[in-house]
Amino acid sequence: MSPQATGRYIRIVGCFSIFVAILFALAGVNDFTGANDIFFHLASSGGNGVAGLDTPEAKMAMAIAGGVFAGLMAMYVFITAPGVEQGSELIRKGSITTFLVWFSVDSAASVATGNAPNVIPNIIFLIVYLTPLLLVKRTA
Predict the structure, then answer these.
(1) Measured between alpha carbons, how far is residue 85 from residues 38, 71, 88 in Å?
(2) Closest alpha carbon to 62 in 35, 42, 44, 38
(3) pTM for the full predicted model
(4) Per residue in 16-52, pLDDT tens?
């Protein structure tokens, strides 16, 4: 992929991911019904939707998780994309490392807490976020 095509891909995927992060964050302040229930049936491992999540603690955790995810995706859109377009190996390699750290911590915690199926969507997300960083044609 050219650096410009990579930057475009990163911006599209990153902006969509920010939207999803906002849905997570809003789950912390909204009732878990309607669109939130549909979203969590799609997003949660096992397809249990929002079962057991309608507590103040769970809502706070969803708000925090949404904010952290939005921040990671903002980094992807506003730092990684332009850095890759400009040929920065530091930003490309740093972004790869960032996603590998996220994947390792999130997947290990998922397994440790009994939610091993979460590793499957994590692998998919890792592929979606890392592929352009691994395929970009490096400039001299």
Answers:
(1) 37, 20, 8
(2) 44
(3) 0.82
(4) 999 988 887 887 676 666 666 666 666 555 555 555 5
CA angle 135, 77, 12 (to 5 degrees): 70
As a dihedral over the C-alpha atoms of residue 11, residue 47, residue 64, residue 121, rounded to 10 degrees, the angle is: -40
In Å, the largest CA–CA distance within the chain is 53
CA distances, 44 to each of 53, 95, 121 (Å): 11, 26, 9
Helices (H), 28-118: 35-43, 56-75, 81-85, 89-112
Query: What's the distance, CA 38 to chain centroid?
Result: 19
Torsion of CA 140, 90, 15, 68, to 10 degrees: 170
- d(CA 106, CA 84) in angstroms, rounded, equals 25
